Amino acid sequence: MKIGEWLKLYREQHNLSMQALADLCGFSKAYINVLEKGINPKTGKPISPTMQTFEKIARGTKTDVDTLLKILDGDQPITLNAPASDDLPALTQRDERQIAKDLEDMLHSLKGSAAMGELEDEEDMELLKASLLQAMTLSKRIAKKKFTPKKYQK
Asked: What mean pLDDT do residues 133-154 have?
């Protein structure tokens, strides 16, 4: 059984509308519809819900996540980590240079500040740098998608 079949069966057994189930799980009615159909309307490919989706469904239906996963077929695709940047545009070399410059400026301004506290360990500094770089890169890609007019998107 796929997650969509289980959701529809659950709705019917509990006399719930799609909207009522969506409210219980914290989703939109449209997303419940997509889950029940099992096909991504944009791509026409089978959906692969994230573990967060299964957790929300389990909470909303008062079912244990393990029990829910055991009910499903072995061929039910599950995304372990939500693809944060699957459909986001790639960065240009100029974007990457700007991010690198901004990151160095940010780290330079933090070094002398009280906010850094006892962060003198080189390993901690590298972890901070890697985290900031990841966040800045993702933010730039999201901004490019959000603010680039459709006619200029590839």
From this structure: 84
pTM of the model: 0.52
Q: Quickly count: other Cβ atoms within 10 Å of residue 12's Cβ.
A: 9
What is the rounded CA–CA span in Å between residue 110 and residue 147? 29
What percent of the chain has a predicted confidence (pLDDT) above 70?
88
Residue 90 has pLDDT above 50, yes or no: yes
Burial 63-94 (b: 16+ CB within 10 A, else e): beeeebeeeeeeebeeeeeeeeeeebbeeeee
Residues 6+ apart with CB under 8 A from 69: 54, 78
Nearest alpha carbon to residue 57 among 71, 43, 46, 73: 71
